[in-house]
Fold Cholesterol oxidase.
Amino acid sequence: PDGSHVRALVIGTGYGGSVAALRLARAGVDVHMIEMGQAWDTPGPDGKVFANTTKPDYRSFWLRGRTKQPLSQFLGFPLDKDVPCHTGILDAEDFAGITVYQGRGVGGGSLVNGGMAVTPLRDRFPEILPTVDPAEMYATYYPRANAGLGVTEVDQNWWEGADAYQYARVGRKHAQRSGFPFVFVPNVYDWDYMKQEAAGAVPKSALAGEVIYGNNHGKKSLQKTYLAQAAATGRVSVSALHRVTSVSPAATGGYTVAIDQIDTTGAVLATKTVRADRVFFAAGSVGTSKLLTRLKATGALPGLNEHIGKGWGDNGNVMCGRANHMWDPTGKLQSAMPTAGIDNWEAGGAFAEVAPLPTGIETYASFYLSITRTPRRAEFSWNPATGRVDLSWDRAWKQTSIDMAKSIFDKINAKEGTIYRSDLFGAYKIWGDHLTYHPLGGAVLDRATDNHGRLHGHPGLYAIDGSLIPGNTSVNPFVTITALAERNIERIIAEDF
Ligand code: FAD
């Protein structure tokens, strides 16, 4: 409530925020979490909490009147359509050179992501977080994160015969015929549930194509893991549809946090102020960076240092499709949860997720999301004229990522005698180079913060999300975000509380 005092306030309920809340609560600290998205605990008129991927509706997009689907076209037909402007689950946030997709709601990105839960190879770790001791990460914090998230491997015997993974087996065949290592990757999906979906025994979720607008069953989002455990402590409360707009030092000590309560059209219903002894920025790479950049520039947090807003990367994301021959159908039933990737990181700088294209019809298409070792980094800056935070990303920078992804797919196409699809991103475009699913950086560890996420210049303020990671994780990021949060919060609780 307005005017109240809390010991620890957490901005955002994604991976970093959920880890902070659980560990603080278990250490006896009362925590209040502020989340600008919805709670996602109430079914809509169709009896379901989340909309299907093939039928986006008012629940699907964050405050835009028209969908902006990552795949904008199919077979030459535009897919986007008008929807009511609503506090939906997926934010396609536009900056000048890039659209950044993010989850909105209690659970953050865990509500919309593909559940791929990948621990980077240990010898690549120094490149990802150079100031963090790999020994403690691989002995303690990665295992703790994987356990907390409920990460498991698909049963490979079942996978070999599952109709829903024919697309992935085609992906394996083509990778191996060109000499690329094909690797299984763990996931947070409940595989027993998926087996029952395939057997027709339970309502379908992954096998109904549910993913980017939420999964009604089967996926262990943070709502079912860290946040459920946090709630069970009795010490964690969550305010959904509340957006933090300012944090500044309070005269009486601690910080004054200004919060807008919004309705599902985005209109502000009330403005509240809360005093917090300590504040954890866990609004995601973009959310945390935008807040800190503005608060530094406008003088609310004058002590923040010159590294705020810097070191931002897109994890080198680039998408593409390949057109297979008629003898390589990828299946009209495709599980929305990916299980595998092609690893050409050492030789070509690319790790490609063999992704589903769950259209419900046979497309003979193979679809991939590549993560690449791009050196490009952008920065956020405050624009007083527009009252917005800009990002200095240049669309042309994606060419390095495209070149790295081509180290895999040009070779596969040459070997198979196949071509790229040009009907997925509009106007004969082969490469999905306009977006990222993996924003990282903006409050980089040991630069904007100390080596455990304490923001320089303002004791009691912390960054504890993807903003700490300087732009690239070599694989999908949420396990690393979670493991780093586990490492940092342990030290923060021991020394600061
Ligand atoms: P987030 O999870 O983004 O959480 C931040 C939260 O803060 C959000 O809920 C947001 O609404 C809230 N917030 C922001 N600003 C404010 C504010 N001012 N006030 C209050 N609340 C605020 N990663 C993988 O590892 N594997 C995958 O398979 C994968 N697939 C993906 C698929 C899609 C479509 C997308 C979009 C992402 C995917 N990712 C995947 C990326 C992964 O989800 C993110 O890296 C991860 O969620 C980031 O965690 P975080 O804790 O930094 O922040």
Notes: The chain is about 25% helix and 20% strand. The radius of gyration is 22 Å. The chain has one domain: 5-496. The domain at 5-496 is CATH 3.50.50.60 (FAD/NAD(P)-binding domain).
